[in-house]
Amino acid sequence: MTSGCNLYFSKIRVTLRKSILDPQGKAVEHAIATLGVDAITDVRIGKYIELKVDRASEEEARLATEEVCKRLLSNPVMEDYRFEIEKA
Amino acid sequence: MIDSRVKFGIVVFPGSNCDHDAYYACKHILKQEAIFLWHKEADLKGVDVVILPGGFSYGDYLRCGAIARFSPVMKEVVRFANQGGTVLGICNGFQILLEAGLLPGVVLRNSSLKFVCKYVYLKVDSVETRFTNQCQPGDVLEIPIAHGDGNYFAEPGIIHRLEDNNQIVFRYCDTDGKVTDAANPNGSLANIAGIINEHGNIMGMMPHPERAVDPLLRHTDGQKVFTSMIESCVSRLSGFSLISADGGRR
Q1: Which residue in chain A has the smallest CA separation from B61?
Q2: From the CA atom positions of chain B, what is the Rg in Å?
Q3: Domain boundaries along the sequence of chain A
Q4: Are B48 and B80 within 8 A, CB to CB?
Q5: Residue B248 pLDDT exceeds 60
Q6: Nearest CB to B154: which of A23, A47, A77?
Q7: Per mean pLDDT, which range of A30-39, B14-23, B74-83, B169-178 is the poorest?
Q8: Nearest CB to A75: which of B63, B112, B155?
């Protein structure tokens, strides 16, 4: 690393697990149908969270993101998460 | 009558709004000792029972109860619970217990997507607990609910375990005590309204017993949850039960 600043940018998506009915998604799906836009199915609503993390490497930034996703940002009983990391 | 006073500690998170109702129930209706425990405190001040009240702790940000769970006081509540202390979580308090992993499962958004605020009927499925020992088998309690996220969900294996261990304490039912889909206000699996942990010292429930205690308001069925906790505390402290000698989970 030549740069002194090692800021990474995590973009996190938290969604209800596939096995769990998403009543919000269903309600939106019905609203879409009433718009007259057809053939739109499987609407799922989730959360988008972004954060910056200062770590020495992308790997460490990934580990830190992973930890907050597991322990706070998602509840594994009902949600899945996935994220992308880029250099901020 | 019960004469030794039990000390209730009611935790106050930013956004709790049923803390005073719980305090009123314990102190002024049941005539027990009651104190508030601010979420930043790391001392439970020798209480016999901890109540996590209803409300919208931390604005329900992220997920209901997800942030309250990290409050300093919760570390002590978890320690207290692990040592066998009596903990009751009501509504948002139940959500906090789930997020803290003290009880299994989660609550999802109500299947109707609506906030539901009304009286419901609860079938008491287990009377052998610290929270229901003053109920009779088959009792139906009329207690209000007020929540938008009360749709209890857990993996089938966990539901089976709850059923097998008699950990489902309350189920939504009709006036006759029949557990039906029509009586289910939020889509909860197996009509679950309240569950208890395996050791029987931690209960979480979506309905609000503290809102059904004052004879002035006609509904007093919620008193049974409080008199049960009092009975169980008094009997454990004095080494005998005022009501019955049955051990069970009391």
Answers
A1: A73
A2: 16
A3: 7-87
A4: no
A5: no
A6: A77
A7: A30-39
A8: B63
Neighbours of B45 (CB within 10 A): 11
Q: For residue B238, what pLDDT band results from cuts at 50, 70 and 90?
A: confident
- The full set of domain ranges for chain B reads 7-238
Active-site pick, B18, B210, B231, B233: B210
Closest CA to B75 of B37, B109, B110, B105: B37
Do the interacting molecules here have an ipTM over 0.90?
Answer: no
**Token pair belonging to B127:** 């009377």
Summarised one tens digit per residue, pLDDT across range B159-175 is 999 999 999 999 999 99
Instruction: Dump pLDDT digits (tens) for A5-24.
Output: 689 999 999 999 998 988 88
Q: Do residues A87 and A9 make contact, with C-beta atoms less than 8 angstroms apart? A: yes
Which pair of tokens denotes residue B98?
Answer: 């789930």
Considering the entire predicted model, what is its pTM? Answer: 0.90
Structure tokens at B183: 């009586």
Other Cβ atoms closer than 10 A to A38: 8
Tokens of B43: 């001392």
Q: Check if the beta carbon of residue B140 is closer than 8 Å to that of residue B221.
A: no
Q: Which residue has the tokens 């009304």?
A: B118
For the domain spanning B7-238, the CATH number is 3.40.50.880
Bridge partners for B55 per DSSP: B16
Taking the Cβ of residue B105 and every Cβ of chain A, the question of whether any pair is shorter than 8 Å is answered with yes
For CA atoms B109, B112, B117, B120, give the dihedral sign. Answer: negative
Domain A7-87 CATH superfamily: Phosphoribosylformylglycinamidine synthase subunit PurS (3.30.1280.10)
Name the one residue in this structure whose structure tokens are 């503290």: B210
Mean pLDDT value across residues A16-36: 91
B200 DSSP 8-state letter: S
